[in-house]
Specification:
This protein is mainly α and 235 residues long. It has helices spanning 3-31, 35-80, 87-170, 176-185, 208-215, and strands at 191-195, 198-199, 229-232. It has a 3-stranded mixed β-sheet with strand order 2-1-3.
Length: 235
């Protein structure tokens, strides 16, 4: 096997390893990102608080109406019960009755307002609860899919790691340190295909002297622009 092919085979394993590890990083960051659900739950909690307040307001308004009705009933009992005959007293009771009725109507208006308020808040709460539920459900489904993709990647990495070890054990690679060094400085790609007379990593044209060298099985040549090791693509 030519020198460049030996390294190119290693590059293929390493590139797949890099890709798998990168994908796992992305998956982990998605799995650990709870911002969207946290925000939805917080909103739901706030709306729950408003709802509790509005329910309390409504109870209070209902209680006031009930109270007022009792007062009116007592007034009517005294007014028409026959026990009171004094005209002045009866006149006072009549005035009181009118004023009690007037205030009842104001209290009933408040009760209606409180009920509408409560209904609207209930609707808003229902919407926020449904939204949080929808996000939670979506996240669960998404997590399951990502989790199984991650498991597949982990086992693929194990296989590739073994392949790499076996390959290095079976194949003498004197240029391994150079390869590792270029990989570090060139974004993981140390060996690139030379397609025709151009570098497939950076697109530079390869001068014919270097192209010839790259095609020699015993020599190593480098792209003059990106400094990567060139491996001629089989024609
Ligand atoms: Zn290049």
């Amino acid at each position: 096997m030519s020198l460049s092919k030996t390294l190119y085979k290693l590059q293929l394993i390493d590139s797949e390893l890099d890709l798998a590890r990168k994908r796992i990083e992305i998956i982990d960051s998605i799995l650990n990102d709870h911002k969207e659900l946290d925000l939805a739950l917080k909103t739901q909690e706030e709306h729950q608080k408003y709802l509790t307040e509005k329910q309390k307001d409504l109870k209070f308004a209902e209680h006031n109406v009930e109270d007022q009705n009792q007062k009116i009933a007592q007034n009517q009992k005294r007014l028409y019960g026959g026990a009171i005959t004094n005209p002045k007293e009866l006149e006072d009771l009549q005035l009181e009755s009118t004023s009690l009725q007037k205030y009842l109507s104001a209290l009933e208006d408040r009760q209606l307002e409180a009920m509408l308020d409560m209904e609207q808040t209930q609707e808003t709460y229902n919407q926020s609860a449904a939204h949080a539920e929808e996000i939670s459900h979506r996240k669960e489904t998404e997590s399951a899919v990502l989790q199984s993709e991650k498991e597949e990647l982990v086992s693929r990495i194990e296989i590739l790691g073994r392949d790499r070890d076996d390959y290095l054990a079976d194949t003498p690679i004197p240029n391994l340190p150079t390869y590792e060094k270029i990989r570090k400085s060139s974004g993981g790609i140390a060996v690139t295909l030379m397609v025709g007379n151009s570098c497939s990593a950076c697109g530079a044209s390869i001068p014919s002297a270097i192209e010839q060298e790259a095609r020699s099985p015993t020599k190593m040549s480098y792209c003059p622009a990106c400094k990567r090791i060139l491996h001629p693509k089989p024609r």
